[in-house]
Amino acid sequence: MSILVLGLGNILLSDEGVGVRAVEAFQAQWTVPDGVDVVDGGTCGMDMLDIIASHRTLIVVDAVKTGAPVGTVVKITGSDVPVFFRGRLSPHQLGLSDLLATLTLTDEAPGYVSVIGCVPASMETSLEMTPGIAARIPAMVDLLVEELRSLGVSLEPKAP
Amino acid sequence: MVQRIVVDPITRIEGHLRVDCDVDGGKVTKAWASGQMWRGIELILQGKDPRDAWVFAQRICGVCTTVHAITSVRAVENALKMEVPLNAQFIRNIIQGAHAVHDHIVHFYHLSAIDFVDIVSALKADPVATSKLAQSLSDWKMNGVGDFANAQKKLAAFVNSGQLGIFGSGYWGHPAMKLPPEVNLLAATHYLQAIEFQRRMNKVVAILGSKTPHIQNMAVGGVANPINFDSQSTLTLEKLHYIKELIDEVGEFVQQVYIPDVCAIGAFYADWTQIGRGVVNYLACPDMPVDTKGEKLSLPGGFIKGADLVGGFNPIKTFNDAYFEKGVKESVKHSWYQGGKGALHPYDGETIPQYTDWSDDGKYSWIKSPTFYDNRAQVGPLANVLCMFAAGHEPTVRWTTAALNTIAMHLKTPVGPDILHSTIGRHAARAVRAAVLHEEVGKQWTMLMENLGKGDFTTYNKPVFPKGEIRGFGFHEAPRGILSHWVVIENGKIKNYQAVVPTTWNAGPRDEGEQMSAYESALLDTPVADPEKPLEVIRTVHSFDPCLACAVHLTDTESRSSYQVKVV
Q1: pTM of the full predicted structure?
Q2: Residues of B in contact with A94 (CB under 8 A)
Q3: Which segments of chain A have a pLDDT < 50?
Q4: Pick from B200, B451, B512, B527: CA 20 to 30 A from residue B289's CA?
Q5: How far apart are CA B301 and CA B270, in angstroms?
């Protein structure tokens, strides 16, 4: 088992950084076993090639635009994922979908990809998320925990 | 009849640049470069602790994280007039050199080669003939018939799957594609090999930076790498030797694949040595400090006026260089910010957004327009190589001469450095720079080992912030050109912060005196065979390696992230 949890986003642009912030919250609350790596990928370019290549399973945590109302939290799995990349729901997919295409060329693309997302309210320049979106982080962490457990990962909550 | 072409976004991976061209009689007659997102790092940093600025600065861009981190700590150290331990200088130098070599390989093979290389045509090539051709160009160990046959199979499967992915915006069969099938297969095979070698160089950054994509080892006053040869959790001899191994492997690729490929492809596209000249004032900073004060730098820099490498060259010498510090100003006359004060020095810079619609003769970009003593300047690997060449830097002269001689051999006619002021010249200069930097990284590694051998393990000096106001600047010759950060600190907190990034120099709108930027002027007279498919425009813009992520910032998820060309 080698699973990569990849938080994407630009923390300088308020809700745009929700994926990175969700992954930080997850790491603060849960103990992750060996075989699962949690990475803050920021706005992810070619630098991430090696990290993604060395994992069979990829869970992307990101701000998404699905047409759903602001603050909606989603889990996208299975055959819906390619659609997510075709529709370019997140501003980071240009980097990420290019990386995945490149890894297809080198036979190193992950066998399973899923996305945990949240629809942002604001992309203004700020280190703070909007209160409404910050309040959705626990729901994103819950979905991430559920996704990891469904992949057979045993997680232990950290003592508060 | 004048046709307006709009290309938006123009970059293949980081896309927030819009280019407008008027085309008349098959040529570009007018051009506008526009950054489509607004930049706000300055506002975020006001009031923050200067020791943390680099952490935020490296979030400006997903491609050049390390360069902003290094430049930011240099700016704060400059304000404090601090000395930096030798080990820290060498470690930073190895990180920046490795990052740049990685970046240049990725740029040529993965971001711009398919402007010149037709992947579909490569499927028709004969692997035996390709191997014979490849071996006539270089001694590279992976130029066998099997290497090319396997790559061709892989590409065929990829193209036939309909998932073009990374090749999605290629122009197969465009009249401006000129390479024979064998050269296309050669380049496409090396494209696949380059994926592997750029990764090795990135490992160097990851080991020294403790983490990637955001390095963790930077600090105002040095680096946070403890060095202890007896502890596995620090930088050990074993790790240092592994780094050297990686550097050497990538060097072979640069010398035996990247440079020969650029020269061969450049010779096939010799007409592109006459296209894309643009601004021929060049600005590059010196880099790779080898003392604690930033007064002795291994790689020279300076300003070249009017393409004159002899009489027009003025060196920039140290991290405290007043000639550089006093020469930079930014105009917002054509940018969507409140202005009216003329061009301002970065210490006094203002960033107050004020969006109005696009106006050809008014405001049309989120990018400011920097000038050097009121001159527009081109920055980037070409500026860097020409300045080092003008300063007589031996490895640069050697590699530039070798590349020009190889191109001359292909063309069977002598060529001089003057062909470098062009679209293809920018690619050639980037390859030369990769070779020069690779050598320099090896030297920095040796100096680090020698210093550690003397028993000096210091990596950090503690900064102390005085009461009152201090100011400083830091620069770094980044993969896309000169990057400078400017900081004003008051009572230990940031009062003003400006980042003048390379793409700002090259892609800015017209300035206070209506002079055009490097992008805009390089596009003039570019031939355009088919306005619906302006491959020629894209070639010239890509030759600058555009990265707008830090020139401006993402605010608009509605922006089209698929590639679009509009003929208006």
Answers
A1: 0.91
A2: 13-15, 561
A3: 87-93
A4: B200
A5: 28
